Amino acid sequence: MAKLSPYNYCLYLLGNREHSVHQIRQKLIAREVDDAEILRCIEKLQTHKLQSDERFCESMIRYHSNQLKGEQWIKHSLKQAGVSGDQIENAFYESEVNWFNVLEALINKKYGETPAVDFKDMQKRKRYLVGKGFGYGLIDEVLGR
Predict the structure, then answer these.
(1) What is the rounded distance in angstroms from the CA atom of residue 38 to the CA atom of residue 78?
(2) Is there a contact between 51 and 14 (Cβ–Cβ < 8 Å)?
(3) Identical fold at 53-94 and 99-143?
(4) Architecture of domain 99-143
(5) Among 26, 65, 85, 88, fewest CB within 10 Å belongs to which?
(6) Structure confidence at residue 144 (pLDDT)
């Protein structure tokens, strides 16, 4: 790819998928763009409504919940992407994801209709589901135990 201006590089990035401000800043730093130019690019993107951390959160929640990832896993990913805790909580509050259904779909995909054979197997399943980002309360509710 030819050397693009910082702003055009940002447009290229955002043309592929949503990015957080932090991600854009990190990518521009890697390209050795000075801080003043980074700030100008981000302000211009936000002024033209081309970049929005709220939209980034919505996109991540939608994408990862469709990939059967849990709420905690997604929250951690958003934190890693540099999104503030308030924005994350607001995005989850406004999302229309039914986490019960997401968890049921994951259980059906992984285990089918096969019930846990004993206590040890049930604990193994719970650890797997927690690792996918679901809370113990929801897991117990879905598993009915």
Answers:
(1) 21
(2) yes
(3) yes
(4) Orthogonal Bundle (1.10)
(5) 85
(6) 80
pLDDT per position as a tens digit, 103-145: 999 999 999 988 888 999 999 999 999 999 999 999 999 988 5
pLDDT, one tens digit per residue, over 54-86 is 999 999 999 999 999 999 999 999 999 999 999
Tokens of 9: 């590089």
Tokens matching residue 128: 């797997």
**Closest residue by Cα to residue 78 from 138, 142, 19:** 19
Please state, in angstroms and rounded to a whole number, the distance separating the CA atoms of residues 141 and 145: 7
53, 90, 92, 139 from 86: Cα distances, Å: 11, 6, 10, 25
* Burial (0-12, 13-18, 19+ Cβ within 10 Å), 27: middle
